[in-house]
Amino acid sequence: MILFGPPGAGKGTQAQYLVKKYNYYQLSTGNLLRSEIQNKTLTGNQISEIIGRGEMVTDDIVDSLISNVIKNNKYKNKIIFDGYPRNIDQAKNLSKILNENNQKIELIIFLNLKREEVIKRIEGRVTCNKCNKTFNKLVDKQEILNHSCGSTHLIKRTDDSAQTIIKRYDTYIDITKPMLDYYSSNSNFKEVDGSMKINQISSKIEDFISS
Ligand code: AMP
Fold this sequence. Notes:
Helices cover 51% and strands 14% of the residues. It is α/β, with parallel strands linked by helices.
């Protein structure tokens, strides 16, 4: 399954829900890239500044990270792509690798969200650096206090600053949105209003899965 949409639309939140419910595997390219940075790998050193500027990491780096996961039999037919593909070349590359590994895209969910809402959500977002769960500082006060990893692990991502959010949204519109044309004519492409409540979105996605 592909979860597609602007930053802050809830892709990661929905992916984590589906992982629990269906035993799927969340392949978040953002998380993979951040762990490269945390582990100070060669790739990590190359990409830290790019992500901090709200720009896209090069296709060859991201393609090789996802390819390793797709080839792993443990995750066969279980992957939720969160944040990949982000442009047409990545979409084509994904089809090719899935084909080579006898897998296919069953469902493409487009979580749609307006620019103003994206900015509001990301400005208040904190992310757990242990489990990658996200919360909104303004809305989820109690959940933050009760977070099982401990609230000290909840940090603001460096690319979640006001200036970088706008850059990331504009990059999404320029580069990622043309993918809508690429996928939207597929019968397994489904648009969901990302401004709905988390559980309403989850239940819509569950309906698509069961149908
Ligand atoms: P995310 O966690 O999905 O919001 O991604 C955070 C950042 O990681 C993005 O702003 C990009 O800089 C980088 N990134 C994540 N996925 C991709 C991708 N598929 N292609 C290029 N860069 C990516």
